[in-house]
Amino acid sequence: IPKFIIDADTGIDDALAILYGLKSDKADIVGITTGFGNIPVEQATDNTLRIVKLAGFEHLVPVSMGAARPLVRHPEFATRVHGRNGIGDVELPPSSQRPAEEPADAFIVRMAGELGGELSLVTLGRLTNVAHALRRDPGLPAKIKHVYVMGGAVRVPGNVTPVAEANIWGDPDAADLVFRSGLAVTMIGLDVTLRTRLHQHQLDALRLHCKPENREVVDFIDRSMQAYFRFYGESNGFDACAPLHDPLTMLAAVEPGIVHTETLRLSVECEGKHCLGMTVADLRHRAAVGHPVRVGVEVDAASAVEKLLAVF
Ligand code: BDR
Ligand code: CA
């Protein structure tokens, strides 16, 4: 089964993506790296350790802490979206597992070498850790099978600004470096994630039908999602539902056929006053600007949600 490192700024939807990745028998999660983003990196790391414990993998999956700030800019957080603690202010029991000694970028480089081309990355936050890994080992693109990136927006508006999606906007220089690096990238952006929504009635049904050993996990998912539903109700007018940005990215990595991609030439705006962090696709007939990236353009949202919930 395919091997992954998940890189996350563990907020509400990151947590669900991690739980899915750990529970799915189609993915082998060899480690989780953390970064700043929704919250500061220390909080993201603590959340990740608690989520790993909740899933029953305490001491079984290494968690390695990464970047506290973007490559060149100042960090900004999103507690308005994810709650003060990043996971909808749900209190999970602390873990006795400590973060790994090895920092995230070194861990990525080492695992890529050890796994001989079999390792893929799923990034659910800023691309800062991957950018640092590329700086540490410029030969990394030849050693990594694929990178599935949650981020960007091509034919739809942004979320954090009119044109930029939060993960790219939060460190555009890192995203730029990754897209140019020669790494094989699939970008799962707002074009497909906003259309893939989890509804309260699906969580109600999951509570009734989940495997007995997953009751606590499902209770956490339902409770943490309440903050996400509230935010998307206020900001997007959604009715008791929220988009599955990060879970869809994990799904796209393990379930072929859920997201349909198209190879587009992409550039990241790193200097603009109005367009900072925009993922600019060259949609002209003879595309010439940017680097080729597989971009999610269509999604089978119903089977995405079904496959996601089926592991619990
Ligand atoms: C992305 O931003 C974060 O708030 C979410 O976890 C997701 O990774 C969506 O723009
Ligand atoms: Ca995230």
TrEMBL record:
Coiled coil: none annotated. SUPFAM superfamilies: Nucleoside hydrolase. InterPro entries: Inosine/uridine_hydrolase_dom, IUNH, Ribo_hydro-like. Residues 5-303 form the Inosine/uridine-preferring nucleoside hydrolase domain. Gene3D superfamilies: Ribonucleoside hydrolase-like. The keyword Hydrolase applies. Pfam families: IU_nuc_hydro. Keywords: Glycosidase, Hydrolase. GO terms for molecular function: hydrolase activity. This is Nucleoside hydrolase. It comes from Paenibacillus artemisiicola.
